[in-house]
Amino acid sequence: MTENLNLQRGLLRHISQFTEVELLDKIKVQSIATEDREGGGWPLVHLSDGRTLRARLLVGADGFNSPVRSYARIQSYGWAYDRHAIVATMNHPPRGPFQGSNTVAYQRFLPTGPIAFLPLSETSSSLVWSTKPQLASALKTVDPQVLADMINAAFRLPDVSLCYLQDRILDAEQSGSPLKPSQFRDELAFRERSDTIDVRSAYSSLAPEQSSAGIPSEDADAVPPIVTSIQAGTIASFPLRFSHAESYIGEGQGVRTVLVGDAAHTVHPLAGQGLNGGLADVEALVRCIEHALLRGGDVACDKLHKLYSSTSQPVVWARSVGLEVLNELDTIKAALMMSAGSERHRRRPGEVGWELAAKSIENFATGLDNARALGGSLANVVGDGVRSLWERGGSGRA
Ligand SMILES: Cc1cc2nc3c(=O)[nH]c(=O)nc-3n(C[C@H](O)[C@H](O)[C@H](O)COP(=O)(O)OP(=O)(O)OC[C@H]3O[C@@H](n4cnc5c(N)ncnc54)[C@H](O)[C@@H]3O)c2cc1C
């Protein structure tokens, strides 16, 4: 477990080493537009301080409601779980000398959703409790001591008793007379007695002798430490949903955009993988950009990916000629990119990709002699390749 604040502090410290990185704090992205330029402009990011940034590559790391995703018109699919996650930081006594450190995470899968107890320090742990929205809302507004007792119960009592206690909380909220901590304690004591829970067992959350001193009960490791209070200002809740963007890379209007993290995908927090998925996205993106730049390409690496993953003959040929050469030859580049595998480009029946590419460069081929006239081995290399393509296209061989 690493607290988000610590992660953020570490990252801020790291980026402060790079003088070329400017951090814009307390500034919002107000809108994003496309630069009006022939051949397609770059994204223009309008900031709340009046500045406009022109982005060679705009990375949408802007969360579930990603403005970058909306700008790039990338669809996102998924569903709501009809569950909210209530989070809080819980205080509890340290583990006893016979129990070791507070390093064990606990998760109980209740019929309404999992509740997780995630250690932060010897005396504090983090709560993530996925439950029905109505109950999450009630738990957020009850007296924090009632919430602490309810958390203890949620790790210890049978489901039927938990349902009873939850109903008590919901009823009290609906009636407008919130439960007092002492009232809830009475209810809890009643349920523990009905469930024949021994007060010396770790499954009792009310035993007065619940302390870290002495030899722990046999079942002490089966449940997390007793929560004694909730840290002020730490209770919050979040709606949970699964979503996945149709594409992580923008095309058309969204060209030069890429999505990472929750902007690209959100998952249920029960496995604690959301942030980790985002970090993996960033690692993959960095690799992709490095790959492109080290080969003299552009940071908008979608087309490079298509070019390198294609096995079509003209594209393989083009790869060996070299991207730098092709970059200068717009007509060929366009034709090859088209052949490089865009699904959106529908071929007519019987028409193979390289034929299309060859047709697209027909006009260019006639101009090659002129290029040769300029001399230079470069033009010859390209010329031979194009001619070979053109001849194959003419004979109809695939
Ligand atoms: C209850 C809960 C528990 C979780 N527990 C875990 C866990 O244990 N482990 C784990 O790996 N993941 C966990 N996750 C998931 C994790 O929190 C997310 O996956 C992660 O925060 C996503 O990071 P992100 O940077 O992509 O998006 P966000 O954290 O949503 O950050 C997006 C940022 O963009 C900013 N932004 C948006 N619009 C604008 C704008 N117009 N201008 C300027 N800034 C803007 C927002 O202010 C925000 O700071 C949990 C999620 C929930 C809901």
From TrEMBL:
GO terms for cellular component: mitochondrion. Signal peptide: none annotated. Residues 8-160, 255-318 form the FAD-binding domain. It comes from the Eukaryota. The keyword Oxidoreductase applies. The keyword Transferase does not apply. It holds the Pfam family FAD_binding_3. Keywords: FAD, Flavoprotein, Oxidoreductase. One of its GO terms (molecular function) is oxidoreductase activity. This is FAD-binding domain-containing protein. It comes from Hermanssonia centrifuga. The lineage of its organism: Eukaryota, Fungi, Dikarya, Basidiomycota, Agaricomycotina.
